[in-house]
Design a protein that fits this description.
One of its GO terms (cellular component) is plasma membrane. The protein is mostly helical. The chain is built from eleven helices and two strands. The longest helix has 44 residues.
């Protein structure tokens, strides 16, 4: 089995985080246009307050509204892409890796994997724990992989298995998983060693999907931070005028 390195997985997580952040702000802006929830101006104001150290734990920045939409977006993103025929999130697609199952895959496994992975996405420092678990694991499985019995491997479309099959390894793995039918054995061979030459010509890496989403995310992030910058400039000018008026009154 061509298991992906931890560093590649980490960079895939960073790419996914960037894409999620961009899509999240795009979603917030769309909700603002529709008049749903807290306005974008309020979000920008809270972001400015955070950057200047002016916030408290009771601020509505920390209420369930923000987390609800982010959690919903993450779960749709993670479950939708991994459960699809792509078997990978956009960040993984860009770097040529995918998620495979230790046994027969199911939507339940994908959902379980996403839920266990959630803390590492919501609280970035926790991701360090997941990385350490993957580093000490024999097959580079992080916590969510161990729970769901999945692996992250190099995209099997990038190679073929002609003359590369280790028959002893294949037989032992078939015996361990209890595989009997030809289709199950063929699927295992493709998981461990890649697709056949004939199949690999028909399939693509789909990395362009991840790149398109990354560009869209950067556009949304650019729009949001442009608005933040404009708001900061207005705030700075307002404070400057207030200071000038205050000085004039002192005179």
């Amino acid at each position: 089995m061509s298991v992906s390195g931890v560093l590649r997985r980490y960079f895939a997580l960073l790419l996914d985080s960037l894409i999620l952040a961009g899509l999240y702000f795009g979603l917030i802006m769309a909700l603002d246009i529709l008049g749903i929830g807290i306005s974008l101006d309020v979000i920008i104001e809270r972001s400015i307050n955070i950057s200047q150290g002016r916030f408290n734990i009771n601020s509505d920045l920390f209420n369930g509204y923000y987390y609800f939409w982010f959690l919903m977006l993450f779960l749709i993103y993670e479950i939708g892409f991994v459960a699809s025929g792509l078997s990978a999130t956009p960040g993984k697609l860009i770097l040529g890796i995918e998620v495979v199952s230790d046994s027969k895959s199911s939507i339940v496994k994908v959902i379980l994997r996403a839920l266990v992975k959630l803390p590492a996405v919501v609280v970035p420092p926790i991701s360090i724990i997941y990385i350490v678990i993957a580093l000490v694991s024999g097959k580079r499985q992080s916590l969510h992989d161990k729970v769901a019995k999945t692996y992250v491997v190099y995209k099997k479309t990038s190679k073929n298995y002609s003359n590369k099959i280790n028959t002893q390894e294949l037989f032992e793995e078939m015996k361990r998983r209890g595989l009997r039918t030809y289709s199950e054995q063929l699927a295992l061979a493709e998981e461990l060693y890649g697709t056949s030459r004939k199949k690999s010509k028909k399939s693509g890496s789909y990395g362009w999907i991840g790149l398109v989403l990354l560009i869209v995310a950067f556009i949304f992030l650019g729009i949001f931070y442009t608005k933040v910058y404009s708001k900061i400039q207005i705030e700075v000018q307002r404070q400057y005028i207030e200071n000038m008026i205050w000085r004039q009154q002192l005179k």
